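Working notes for the structural subgroup meeting. M.R. asked for a predicted model of this chain before we commit to crystallization trials. I am recording the input and output together here so anyone reviewing the notebook later can reproduce the run.

Input as submitted:
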Amino acid sequence: MTLRMRTPIALALAASTMFTSSAFAEPSQELIDAAKKEGMLTTIALPHNWCNYGGVIQGFKDKYGLQVNELNPNAGSADELEAVKANKGNTGTQAPDVLDVGLSFGPAAKEQGLIQPYKVSTWDSIPDDAKDPEGYWYGDYYGVLAFAVNKDVFPEVPTSFADLKASAYTNSVALQGDPRTGNSVMMAVYAAGVAEGGEPGADALNKGIGFFKELKDSGNLVPVNGTAQNLAQGTTPIYFDWDYNLLAVRDELNGNPPIEVVVPSDAVVAGVYVQAISAYAPHPNAAKLWMEYLYSDEGQLKWLDGYCHPIRFNDMTERGVIPQEMLDKLPPAENYAKAIFPTLEQQEAAKAAVAENWGKEMGLQ
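Returned structure, recorded in token form:
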């Protein structure tokens, strides 16, 4: 994704306690004082209605009293890196301090020397497969592939990819489009392949193609793109997308018709964004304080309030710090605990496989 259109239990007490010191750690007074002396944080590409960033920014300002200078809220990930490049020697208001980019842009920014390392105090509770081991970039929030179900059509809601093979779902299951041209659609096919036992990468993607070919042959796959309108009308009463998009659709429809968002029990595949600090940040201490806020329980909960799963979701669930009213708006937490984060290499292999095999297997041009 390059455009910011924004268009992935209980443990034993001892294991849970491992995270206690880091999860509740506060930034040092020295860092807070240094950030306040700088007085400002410059962000870029953070629309207020995406992941509740409006609430996140306001929470940071309220907590620390810093000014937040917001550049181009609708910029894309590539635009963010270009803004860093264009302002290497600029300490003014056009130079971003911090970045929020798609996964592939984190390693690219590191390779180009555009970001600097910093490990937040809650570092250990960020999953290893969602962060650079040296601290140059780290996952901030994610969505998981899910499907929405029109409950007027299907009062008994399917809970897995395997369930969707049943004859009860004839002419009912839809994708958003062609997986060769849309990342979320490709990842839906990938997730189906994981459910079918596929190994990460091309194997999962090819098994996912086999899954949807089976749905097509049985008549379960609708040859119409899944949309909110088609979901509501019953044209595509089941369709796939990232969970945060589907949860927003559910809320917008407000029970007319009733919608249930299902995280499939047999495959939980996540797509993650990452945070980083510019190597040329004019306000490096404010940037570090921003990161501390984002990765605190308070900051993570503000993202969750916008239906974007904070990267420390599993840790916070295990410690029981997520308000029940938030959890009640989401699919069951135990499914999210199984989320896997495909690597860049696995995603590239999947893209190659879908480009080569989707058309010929599905009988398309």
